[in-house]
């Protein structure tokens, strides 16, 4: 037993060292969604071909990310970060007290946000595709639902970005840059 502990300690990175957390698939998905949402919400004309192409690219990225959530690297897997209700409740209670633990992968609140955004992305993708079908051509309710889902993505994305900046400040770690490089400080290398 002591030999196993010694081996585990020898393999653990030193405090302050960087470790790979976000693999290229996770990072590519993240930035594809960011770029796609910016393009389709603010730059491209609704209903035009470029808007549709970007929508299909985001939808394809979502399909890949969902599959990757089952077969990908450790921190990409749903089994690694989807919280139980009790774990989420404990995390939120600690967050309210200003004592939330630092998490190497997704924290429980971030995991719920990610899942909510994925559901909304799926919804906006499906409704966007439906609007191209003859059966739903010109349906106002469908266009309204598509726009409502897109607006919900915008609101949650802004909340997500604010939370990432807040957590970066709280734990003295640039989470935006971590999503670019894929690397974060090893556990023990930043405060809670």
UniProtKB/TrEMBL annotation:
Which SUPFAM superfamilies does the record match to this protein? Transmembrane di-heme cytochromes
One GO cellular component from the entry? plasma membrane
Membrane topology value = Multi-pass membrane protein
Cross-referenced Pfam families: Ni_hydr_CYTB (PF01292)
The record's subcellular location field reads: Cell membrane
List residues of the Cytochrome b561 bacterial/Ni-hydrogenase domain.
21-182
One Gene Ontology MF term = electron transfer activity
Instruction: Identify the keywords attached in UniProt to this record, alphabetized.
Output: Cell membrane, Membrane, Transmembrane, Transmembrane helix
Domain of life (superkingdom): Bacteria
Q: Which residues form a coiled coil?
A: none
Q: What is this protein called?
A: Cytochrome B561
């Amino acid at each position: 037993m002591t030999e196993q502990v010694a081996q585990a300690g020898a393999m653990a990175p030193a405090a302050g060292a960087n470790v790979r957390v976000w693999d290229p698939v996770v990072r590519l998905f993240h930035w594809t969604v960011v770029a796609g949402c910016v393009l389709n919400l603010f730059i491209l004309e609704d209903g035009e071909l470029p808007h549709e192409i970007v929508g299909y690219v985001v939808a394809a990225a979502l399909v890949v990310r969902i599959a990757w959530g089952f077969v990908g690297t450790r921190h990409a897997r749903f089994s690694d970060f989807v919280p139980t209700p009790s774990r989420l409740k404990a995390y939120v209670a600690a967050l309210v007290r200003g004592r939330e633990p630092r998490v190497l992968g997704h924290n429980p609140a971030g995991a719920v946000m990610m899942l909510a955004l994925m559901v909304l992305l799926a919804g906006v993708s499906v409704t966007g595709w439906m609007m191209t079908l003859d059966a739903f051509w010109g349906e106002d309710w469908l266009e309204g639902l598509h726009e409502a889902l897109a607006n919900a993505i915008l609101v949650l994305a802004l909340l997500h970005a604010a939370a990432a900046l807040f957590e970066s400040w709280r734990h003295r770690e640039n989470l935006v840059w971590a999503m670019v490089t894929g690397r974060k400080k090893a556990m023990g290398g930043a405060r809670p």
